[in-house]
Amino acid sequence: MKSKQKKKYSLNKKSLFLLIILVFILFLVNSTTNRLYKKNKTVFPTYTTYIDSINTKGVAIFDEEVYTAKGSGIVLFNASEGEKVPVDFEIANINLMNDTSELKDELSQINAALSYKLNEEGKSVAINDEVNVTKIQEDLKNKDLLKAISDINELDLNTQKNVSVSNLTELMSSSIEELTEEKEKLSSQIAKSNISYKADYSGVVSFKIDGLEKYYTPENLGKLTIEYLDKHYKVSDFKSETKVENKDYLFKLVNNLSYYVALKIDDFEELKDLKLGDQLNLEVDGKEDILGQVVEINKEKKKGIIVLSVNTNFDELYSSRFHNFKIVLNEMKCFEIPKSAIIKRNSMAGVYVQEIQGLVRFVPIESIKSLENSVYVSTGDKDSYITLSEKTYKTITINDSIVINPERIRESQILN
């Protein structure tokens, strides 16, 4: 009897020991497995904007006029770079530095003779120093430098001077009409010692003359080809100077209300059904966005030139002829995920999303654009559903923790 109880106790003791060992082994395996699962590296999707675009180069074309010196002398500018001026604004004035002293002496004698004859006939003489001084003050107030110089000369020449009657003998034989005509002729000659440059239209003054103004004009839009742009690309290095020679560049006046942009297109297939009148969104030099309307399509087989009419962002483009452009075809919100996270299961692309205890779930994705190290994928509809092969699937969300080393995932970790 005692022997049977002793054997039963021994058996229970062995069973308990085996159970403890089994529990320990299971704990060890589970602990080890959990530690392996936790080594999975994860990352959250980055919410961003995908821009489907074409990179290209282009040229800005303006309605502009270059003004050149019509003589040698000293130039005075009344406008600065980029300043908007109204029509008839005097932008520059050149003093030709001519010696007009003899002409002024001759004009003084004619004024004296004319004054004598007019007084002799009882006619009023239009010489009034106070009136001329007032005119000069008005000229300076209105910033009309050329008019001020002319009125100063008039004041100087009309001032009563002691002129010998013997010097007027020949002039006295001339009629009042003849003297008046000669006075106007001499006054015109003296005035030509200063050349005024006024704005022919309202526009922006620029001293950034590149020498390509004659090649890129609104009248030449139909002639633009890739070969034409490649031929006319060297810009000159012009600097405005105070002292100028005849035919030197002075400045240019640019119409700032509208301009054109000609773009090189290497493959028209990328633009699909582009036609005249279409609107295109451009990114300029990696920062500015402008909207233009297609007004010319000069196609040569698959490549060519398109010309857009633009009426915004003039200040950002006028100072340089050539720019880097990006034609924006489409913009969409999307997620950016690492390329290494993507796997294929049953011919369907997707990622593993981390769940609790190191377990993962396979989630389908729709790729939009593949980059060097990452991929843009669709965010789906408002409920995060995408359509693949006419079937709908729940895709990733901004809160999903995506496994970036899916090759380490074991079948036992996958929930679906």
From TrEMBL:
Protein name from the UniProt record: Putative membrane fusion protein
Entries under InterPro entries matching the protein: Beta-barrel_RND-rel, BSH_RND-rel
Coiled coil spans: 169-196
Name of one Pfam family that matches: BSH_RND_rel
Domain RND related barrel-sandwich hybrid: 64-255
Keywords (A to Z) from UniProt: Coiled coil
Domain RND related beta-barrel: 259-330
